[in-house]
Amino acid sequence: MGKTFSKPEALTDNHTHYCPGCTHGIVHRLVAEAIDELGIRENTVGIAPVGCAVLAYNYIDCDFQEAAHGRAPAMATGIKRVRPDLMVFTYQGDGDLASIGMGEIIHAANRGEKITVIFINNAIYGMTGGQMAPTTMPGQRATTAPAGRDAAQTGMPIRMANLMSEIVTPGYVTRQAVLKPQMVNKCKKAIKKAFEYQVANTCFSFVEVISTCPTNWGMTPIDSLKWAEETLLPYYELGDYKTPEEA
Amino acid sequence: MQTEVKFAGFGGQGILLSAKLLAYAAMKQGYQVAWIPSYGPEMRGGTAYCTVVISDKLIGSPIIKSPSHLVAMNRPSLEKFDDTVKPGGIVFINASLIPVRSQRKDVVELAIPVNDIAIEAGSVRAANIVALAAFAAKSKLVDLDLLKKCIKEEFAAKPKIIPLNMDAFDRGVAAAQA
Amino acid sequence: MAKVLMKGNEAIGEAAIRAGCLNYFAYPITPQSEVAEYLSKRLPEVGGTFLQGESEVAVGYMIFGASGAGERVMTTSSSPGISLMSEALSYIAAAHCPAVFVNIVRGGPGLGGILPSQGDYFQATKGGGHGDYHLLVLAPDGVQEAVEMTMQAFTLAEKYRNPVMVMGDGMIGQMMEPVEFPDDLKTEPTNKDAWATNGMSTRKSKTPNLVKSLFLDSAELNRNNLDLKAKYEQMKKEDVQYELYNADGDYQILIASYGTMSRVCRTAIDMLKAEGIEAAMFRPKTLFPFPEKQVYDAAVKDSCKCVISIEMSMGQMVEDVQRCVMGKKPVEFYGECGGEIPSPEKIIEIVKELIG
Known about the structure:
B: globular, C: Rossmann fold, five-stranded mixed β-sheet, globular, 2-oxoglutarate oxidoreductase (chain A), thiamine pyrophosphate binding (chain A), oxidoreductase activity, acting on the aldehyde or oxo group of donors, iron-sulfur protein as acceptor (chain A), THDP-binding (chain A)
């Protein structure tokens, strides 16, 4: 009987530290599959963020650098500019990218850095314990918003893919989700496409991935998927927001 | 032996360049030199000044409160720095723009209408070269032929304006020696 | 090579290229923006990389990324900008990466001013960023030394896999002096295959390299700190640089000063000598590692009545001088700030007062 399913070469054998039901594991796998399929593992450098994915280098089997909170796009810029032959990707959460790292991500995109950004949006700070993120939904409870996010005080959630699509410099900007198998398959295609744009030296590429955080949302994994679909997806609409072809 | 020359004037009068050319020629002549600018908001159109130090040994303090000589290209510069010049030094005055004279009795005054001379040579923009040439001729700090060569080198990228500046230089020397 | 007349800032830019550094990231700030202006023109001519980042914070990580990827890289800034880069400096030191940072110091604190100052001594030598780390800090006293130290900085950064800071001041950045670019200070880059993220395909070993500063295990973090400490101890043994001036005879006072300030002190010492008063100068060229034993030895000389640290600050290096002299001689201080620089005449007055 032939092999029908195997672990990507770009994933290590380590068990992840992620909570049950967390979707980081799925996205790690999609990134690893894309790297394998493009045959770029030995030329790839990943940038780990500060957040739950800080230990991403334990799971994705390529060269890695670890950035300070929010600075991954600047670090990726430094690597890519001095070694344009390397494939450089950042893997960042919503606190990292959309809060403290807003300046770095906007300017890296605006310069058209030929890097790939994987942006995990689960509407909460994970590693530090469920604090409010810029992406937290109005009314959503967080440890720093015990009565739920009050938009009158803290504004509305930031829609990064929408914001990034306003940048005039050509780029690939898409929002995907990993809440259902069909979504996972589409997300995989988007991540691979993002890397392909980099391999072809075409443009900056950005994949926002709507994810879940059962632990900090205080839900079961199944309920989390349902809540994300019902609450996040209407506000964070999926699809391609910008492609270099349309520029 | 150390000599310090302060160049002062409006921003845009070419003060920094005159000073640099003097420093450059002195360096070529084998001296230790330092070109010390004032920098900051006064670079933007206000009074600009800078100091050239020429010495036969390693230059120590770059802080020069009283220079050996002053090249004043406008009135505020003369009024501000006249007092600071060491006794016996040259106070060079751009007589085209400065209607007054040095208040000092213990300095050598040299008043030359460098703007007018520069206009005669073809452009008021060469006034700094007229002043530099006249001051150099009077002070004898550097070899005049060498200084002239340095000016030519400086404008190598803009050969069209070399004849103007060479003419301005000769007129400046002549005015000092008149 | 013939001497050229260059502004300190431009000479530092050229020195980096001569040292084989073809990568530069920076953000404009007075009084050092001429480095970026110069390199924005020069680096493309030699096939190098120039990028103006969006902030000093971002630039710090561009440097970290480029350094982690194994390339020679430099940035230049001035005091407020260095504060913003201090976050990255802590990470770069923790991750054992080589990089060169130039600080053309201006007056502080806060926005302060744009004139020369030495107010960043503590920041440069004692930290700036968080955690137990040090930079190797070189302090030039003029344009020629700024060139030489910038070139040496790359060799030292790679020797220790540690960030090196060249700390000048606005005067050194803005003044023009004749300079030569020595050929013998250029070194070949070290082999970085053992640690840099330069791509597995270029290396023999197919194990991924990891550039990181997170050690959640206490024993591992302790080990990283011990490794850092071992490097600092090695710096103290092998790379202390200093100068003694007029120190052969029986001097009555030892003046400690560095950078631009030391030039003023040199002039004051010459003027004192002409009056028959002997003063010596101790000038650290490495602010870290500080020449601890050398300042002690110079201070304890029998003829020396006291030591004075003269700085363009309100008293920073004086704490190191006091620490090293260990109470064997009185250690005094004089300083001015904000672009005011103690004049030779002022120094003479103070010295005369001190030695009676």
